[in-house]
Amino acid sequence: KYDNLIKSKLNKGKLEREIIDIKNLSLNKYYDSYNNFCFISKHLCGEACELSLNKIIDIVNEHKSENDIKAYSIIIATCCHYLLNNETYCNYKMFEEYNFNKEEFDLMTRMSSWATLKNENDKNYILVKKIKTLLDYGRCKYLKHNGFKEAKLIQYIDSDTTKENIIILAK
Fold this sequence. Notes:
Elements: H1 2-9, E1 36-45, H2 47-64, E2 71-79, H3 92-97, H4 102-111, H5 123-145, E3 151-155, E4 166-170
Parallel strand pairs: 1-2
Antiparallel strand pairs: 2-4, 3-4
């Protein structure tokens, strides 16, 4: 239903929905003759976000070297940060530079599950929102390091609707 609404608003663009394991996703089949590429995902949980970012970076770099990508962008709503670990997180190096060890990193990711607390004034909620922001900020830095000119975090909906209300916007 919503796919048809989005398709009706696209100007000669294509919209494809895939329901697969991200590790099996091949983005080459979506690269279009218009040389534009936009990856959109709502609530890409934990490690699935890292897998997707790496696949997107790979295809952008592959076609960028051929000088045939005019525009590329990412819009991802992140969630389930508690599923991350130092082996899967895309920018663990940033945390090492800030002198976090593996145990501290793992504790932070586990604590991030508290972000769904109802009381936004609760000190645990405030701390965990900062942790989630830091994790997503690391993802933005990772994207910039890998060729994206801009990567930022945006609150796309109010926290009364969902506490998982941050997107990564990169281009």
